[in-house]
Automatic annotation (TrEMBL):
InterPro entries: LTXXQ (IPR012899). Residues 29-38 have a biased composition (Pro residues). Residues 1-25 form the signal peptide. GO terms for cellular component: periplasmic space. The keyword Disulfide bond does not apply. Residues 22-48, 93-124, 158-182 are annotated as: Disordered. Keywords: Signal. The lineage of its organism: Bacteria, Pseudomonadati, Pseudomonadota, Betaproteobacteria, Burkholderiales. This is Spy/CpxP family protein refolding chaperone.
Length: 182
């Protein structure tokens, strides 16, 4: 009799352990596979080289189109045109700092790379200050109705850009990992 009880007890314990292991395995989210060796390096799988000349040309076309749409939307007066031209010139890509060559940056020491990054941040800040000054001058020439249209258009463009960037990130990297729950 004891042998049947021992067999039943051991079967219950084994099945309980198996159920417990199955339940815990289901609650752990699967880990994403590790990136392939060399991912992110030129020529490696997953590397996305950017043709800067092509990208800049595409950006110039997009900016010109949006500026033409905005110009038409605002119905600018001849008195507002000089401020508009100054504003548009401040937004040109030639005023933006060019990306650094990663191969050149790799040759530098860490403090040198940080100094170079700081210099570029200062250049970018100076560019933004020039753009802001041109924007304030132009914005000041607008009527309240034009300012409202300008603000709405800027919000829409910013949202479109954020959406486009999010889609691009998902396309390159796949969906983001699930957020851990507290």
């Amino acid at each position: 009799m004891k042998s049947i009880q021992t067999v039943i007890t051991s079967m219950l314990l084994t099945s309980g352990i198996a159920l417990s292991a199955a339940a815990s395995a289901q609650s752990v989210p699967p880990q994403p596979p590790p990136p392939p060796p060399g991912a992110g390096q030129e020529g490696a799988p997953g590397y996305h080289a950017i043709d800067m000349a092509k990208w800049q040309e595409k950006m110039k076309e997009r900016m010109a189109k949006r500026q033409a749409e905005l110009h038409e939307l605002l119905k600018l007066t001849p008195a507002q045109e000089p401020a508009w031209k100054t504003y548009v010139q401040s937004m040109e890509l030639k005023n933006m700092p060019q990306p650094q060559d990663p191969r050149e940056m790799d040759k530098l020491s860490t403090p040198e790379r940080m100094e170079r990054s700081l210099e570029r941040m200062k250049e970018h800040q100076a560019s933004l200050q020039n753009r802001l000054a041109a924007l304030k001058t132009f914005y000041g020439t607008l009527t309240p109705e034009q300012q409202k249209l300008f603000d709405e258009n800027h919000r829409r463009i910013k949202k479109d850009m954020q959406d486009r960037m999010a889609k691009e990130m998902q396309r390159k990297d796949g969906p983001p990992p699930p957020m851990p729950r507290p």
